[in-house]
Amino acid sequence: MSRLTISISDDMHRALKEAAVRQGRSIGSIIEEGLHLRGIKPIEDARSLVKKARAHAALTDLEAIDTSIEESKVQRRS
């Protein structure tokens, strides 16, 4: 697992620590969840979407990629 150092305001850090305690989670898991919600995901997720699109339709590579991009946009909005 990688480590990352970030700078945030003292108030945000305090709020993050309090949320972690309330939720019984780590600060890292809360931040990681936020990144996922913003659509920041590993490349394997994108590849999985392309594979899924190909399995459900007879698409060209370009059509499958376009489908995965559109699906990613839908996922980010929800």
Short description:
The chain has 4 helices and no strands.
Uncertain parts = none
Structural class: mainly alpha
CATH architecture of the largest domain: Orthogonal Bundle
Q: Give the number of domains.
A: 2
Termini separation comes to 28 Å
CATH class of the largest domain: Mainly Alpha
Residues in helix, %: over 70%
What does this protein look like?
With 78 residues, the protein is mainly alpha-helical. It has two domains: 40 residues, Arc Repressor Mutant, CATH 1.10.1220; 35 residues, no CATH class. The chain is 72% helix and 0% strand. The protein has four helices and no strands. α3 crosses α4. The longest helix is centred in the C-terminal third of the chain and has 17 residues. The two termini are 28 Å apart. The mean pLDDT is 87.
Question: What attributes does this structure have?
Answer:
Arc Repressor Mutant; about 80 residues; 2 domains; mainly alpha
What layout of secondary structure does this protein have?
Layout: H1 10-23, H2 27-37, H3 43-56, H4 61-77
